[in-house]
Design goal:
This protein is α+β, with helices and mostly antiparallel strands. The protein has one domain: Transposase IS200-like (Alpha-Beta Plaits), CATH 3.30.70. The protein is built from nine helices and five strands. It has a five-stranded antiparallel beta sheet. A hairpin with a 2-residue loop joins strand 2 and strand 3. Helix 1 packs antiparallel against helix 3 and helix 4 packs across helix 9. The longest helix is centred in the C-terminal third of the chain and has 30 residues. It is globular, with a radius of gyration of 18 Å. The termini are far apart.
């Protein structure tokens, strides 16, 4: 089935799993590499590889104002075996190009580091068009708190990185375009309350779905 074209100025929930749901992040170095890739590949100008850029003293890839972006990153969450992104398309074919660079670049890095070959991700990334403001707010909470949605254990949670801190605290060098979300709340505390209330509803729904599935099996 062909994918509907992404539209500039529209928001999309984008996600993917590791092939056969294998882990795509094995330590904090992996998650940081993926985050660096999100920053560096988000440019209309071809940049080559992150490795090449590390030798370029004149590179302005870390300067968010020095480039025209493919996408605006609204929220993200990296879990051990999958990731979620909330993106706004900022340029023509921006999401498709961004995801091609991100997936290809990180796969090359991961395979090279782990001496493996082949696909790392479960086929082409999946996406959902965010068509209403209510849905936009809900997806922001779902993505920001996705590790808690999946109720990861303490050890597994160490491999998780999300934009939750950007939304609830003051952080250095933030990545996300948050005004579209936070601008609808009086302050960060009010958004935090909204997101955590939404999380409670999500967890209750998951619990009910598990119980219904169990009763059907019995």
């Amino acid at each position: 089935m062909s994918r509907e074209p992404f539209v500039e100025g529209e928001f999309y929930h984008v996600y993917n799993h590791g092939v056969e749901k294998r882990n795509i992040f094995s330590d904090e170095y992996d998650t940081q590499r993926f985050l660096d890739s999100m920053r560096m590949f988000n440019s209309e100008e071809p940049i080559g590889s992150i490795y090449e850029q590390s030798f370029n003293r004149d590179s302005k890839l870390g300067d968010e104002t020095a480039k025209s972006k493919l996408v605006n990153i609204v929220a993200y969450c990296l879990n051990p075996n999958h990731f979620h992104l909330l993106l706004e398309q900022a340029s023509e074919k921006g999401i498709s190009e961004f995801m091609k660079r991100l997936g290809g670049g990180y796969t090359w890095y991961f395979n090279n580091r782990n001496k493996r070959r082949g696909n790392l991700f479960q086929g082409v990334f999946r996406s959902s068009h965010v068509t209403t403001n209510e849905y936009l707010l809900h997806v922001s909470a779902y993505v920001n708190l996705n590790d808690r949605v999946h109720q990861l254990g303490d050890e597994t949670a160490k491999l998780t990185k999300s934009s939750w801190e950007e939304y609830t605290q003051k952080v250095m060098n933030p990545m996300c375009l948050k005004d579209v979300i936070l601008g609808q709340f009086r302050n960060k505390g009010e958004y935090k309350e909204y997101a955590e209330d939404a999380l409670s509803i999500m967890l209750d729904r998951k619990k009910n779905e598990r119980e219904e599935k169990y009763l059907m099996i019995e």
